[in-house]
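**Reference record**
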Amino acid sequence: MTSEAKNLLDPGFELTLRPMRYPDFYERYRDAIKNTWTVEEVDLHSDVADLAKLSPAEQHLIGRLVAFFATGDSIVANNLVLTLYKHINSPEARLYLSRQLFEEAVHVQFYLTLLDTYLPDPEDRAAAFDAVENIPSIREKAEFCFRWINEVEKLDRLESRADRRRFLLNLICFAACIEGLFFYGAFAYVYWFRSRGLLHGLATGTNWVFRDETMHMSFAFDVVDTVRKEEPELFDDRLQQEVTDMLAEAVEAELQFARDLCGDGLPGMNTESMRQYLECVADQRLTRLGFAPVYGSENPFSFMELQGVQELTNFFERRPSAYQVAVEGTVDLDEDF
């Protein structure tokens, strides 16, 4: 049975793919299929030798990083199933969300493999999996996520403007703050190691995760754009302030994580430089959402621009023939990182 939904967030469960109301979402699904990779293609053997070369402070950073990875994408996947699939009333969009859920599962498998490789001691692995409970800097980020999940958890239908605002804030939180800030902060640590010739297996897998996360974020922003066209009254000064405050809180939570990872600072990586990077990324997210940037910071990490990673420049504007299936690729961290 099909509904008579006229707008993307109208309650119901539209089933009809023809005529297609949102063909761009379907094209995103098709592009995602062409971007398939598997964890088995990531070779982590050289990373084991590299781990032995790291200082105790660097080993602490890696331990914390993989502990965050172990839980982060599971939280994203849960919100995708419990919230986004439930309320985005478009079969084309749900096709993409189904594909995204598969990709989140691949990411979880990749991080599980990282933990098994990097932390051979079972007790260390168990502690990493319990990071939300026993590592304060990771618990703070998880609690930030759960708060926005809880905001919409009991909504069965988006009946009112208030309901739709709550949903939009959840969607923006996961796109701009979690996938678009927390994970981008984590990627910076990975590429910092790679700039020093270390942990190439981790960097290879991260290239592919980065590519997926960029697509997830871009899809979510397309949903926001669509809702803005259909229901512009939702995008008022109040929403802008709420999103700006949300991103500021996310930056601070990620900075707490940086303090935990970096301690007094490492060569080329410290809390202050991470602050500038996160502020720069936060401004980019605000700008993409059509809101005013607030920080004015520039990217301090030259290694993010010197990785020889130009293959995905203007990734979403390229022809489908430019995609490769299960081939090691690179990512453009110089633009919209």
Q: What stands out?
A: Confidence is low (pLDDT under 50) at residues 306-334. The CA atoms of residues 132 and 139 lie 4 Å apart.
